[in-house]
Design goal:
This protein is an alpha/beta fold. 40% of the residues lie in helices and 13% in strands. Helix 2 runs antiparallel to helix 9, helix 6 packs parallel to helix 7 and helix 9 crosses helix 11. It is globular, with a radius of gyration of 21 Å. This is Methionine gamma-lyase family protein.
């Protein structure tokens, strides 16, 4: 550790943390290998070839690379079909296209995991007064509250689904800026079983952001009908420079494609320009990179638990995404943590993160991300709204060694301020 000034207490605690979580790290190695082999098989079944790596222009008719990429993602996600495009500008955009693709005036969308993430609320019409929201099109939003401890209220969920018979049952896998547990595939499966038992015709939609490749089981194989996410998170492998995906049942993906382009053309048009090569490479690396991010999260949980902080998930818990929550207790420590992560970055390490207003967020947010891709959440980053309970949400790391360094620098910043 001679390259960086790390507090001796953190070095000693990190040695204990590595010993504490060695079995969990080995478990993640196994998941990485499984999903990497699955990804290679997906490439082979899609007959990916060198010519697919180049893009098209104009209308993008007969773009074989675009079609092969859809097949790759469909296979690895256990989907009937997938829509993978560089012109999804964010995960929120992909989710919005999915919502508008299948919901119609008079339909009800029921969120069974409480209040959705900040940035999707304006698209639904929950917050703000923006023209073009679901609310503008007379699509009703309903929500099942979580239990006081943040867990799912399965009885109330069953009752609400049975009573409302919603067109869509909406599940958010990740916790967002809340302290509720992230959903593992087992909880998602239970929600799907409840939904199908009480309203078989309801479409089960999953916001899968941060949850791809974290286990051997994908949500579409346990009852989810469609899901969406961002390529600058797990599935882009840190290489995709932008984009998103929608995957699921073929007829639902087709409806979303009609929304993204035009009714009648759907997936048949859309120039890929020069994006194909990076999107294919990102997919190829995604299982390994996601595993490295998981290892970083596990290490951070173990280290900060040793240092006396509450963490969620615990280092040995089952995980539903790559996000690690660390309860720091006050705004100053949150900012110091983000400064430490930033100081361990390869890009913009000299920058000092400061809280600021962010579009789509209620509170000021402090963010650390020395990333090769702006806003990438699969590269090591940390962010938090400056509000109670003063926790930080950390995610990503293209490789575990860099992630471990960033976590240790963050811990050093906090410990030295406590002197």
């Amino acid at each position: 550790m001679s390259f960086f000034d790390i507090d001796e207490r953190v070095i000693k605690a990190s040695e204990k943390a590595m010993e504490l979580c060695k079995d969990k790290l080995a478990e993640i190695d196994d998941i990485q290998e499984y999903n990497q082999q699955k990804m290679i098989k997906a490439f082979q079944l899609a007959d990916v070839r060198e010519s697919h790596l180049w893009g098209s222009t104009g209308y993008g008719y007969d773009d074989a690379g675009r079609e092969a990429l859809d097949k790759v993602y469909a296979y690895v996600f256990d989907a009937e079909d997938a829509l993978v495009r560089h012109n999804f500008v964010s995960g929120t955009h992909a989710l919005t296209v999915a919502l508008f693709g299948v919901l119609r005036p008079g339909d009800t969308m029921l969120s069974v995991t409480g209040m959705p993430y900040d940035t999707i609320r304006s698209a639904i019409g929950i917050e703000g007064d923006y023209p073009g929201s679901l609310k503008d099109f007379s699509i009703k939003f309903e929500m099942t509250e979580l239990n006081p401890d943040g867990t799912l209220d399965y009885d109330k969920i069953a009752s609400d689904i049975a009573e409302k018979k919603p067109k869509m049952v909406y599940i958010q896998r990740s916790r967002g800026y809340s302290t509720r547990p992230t959903l593992t595939w087992r909880e998602i499966k239970k929600l799907c079983e409840i939904s199908k038992a009480n309203s078989p015709e309801s479409i089960i939609m999953l916001d899968n952001c941060y949850g791809e490749f974290i286990d051997k089981v994908e949500p579409l194989s346990v009852g989810v009908d469609m899901m969406a996410g961002s390529l600058i998170k797990n599935p882009g492998g840190g290489i995709a420079p932008t984009g998103g995906y929608i995957a699921g049942k073929k007829e639902l993906v087709e409806m979303c494609a009609y929304r993204l382009t035009t009714p009648g053309t759907g997936k048949e048009i859309g120039a890929t320009l020069n994006a194909n090569r990076e999107l294919f490479m990102g997919a190829y690396h995604a299982p390994h990179v996601t595993g490295e991010a998981l290892k970083t999260a596990v290490f951070a949980s173990a280290l900060f638990e040793i240092l006396g902080y509450e963490t969620s998930p615990k280092y040995n818990d089952a995980r539903g995404d790559i996000i690690q929550l660390i309860m720091l207790g006050n705004a100053e420590k949150v900012c110091r943590f983000c400064e430490g992560v930033q100081s361990g970055s390869a890009v913009d390490s000299f920058v000092s993160p400061i809280p600021s207003d962010m579009p789509g967020y209620e509170s000021q947010v402090v963010m650390a991300a020395g990333a090769f891709t702006l806003g990438s959440s699969i590269e090591l980053s940390a962010d938090a709204p400056l509000r109670e309970p003063y926790a930080v949400w950390m995610q990503g790391s293209l490789n575990f060694h860099s992630g471990k360094l960033g976590v240790m620098l963050a811990a050093s910043k906090i410990l030295r301020d406590e002197k």
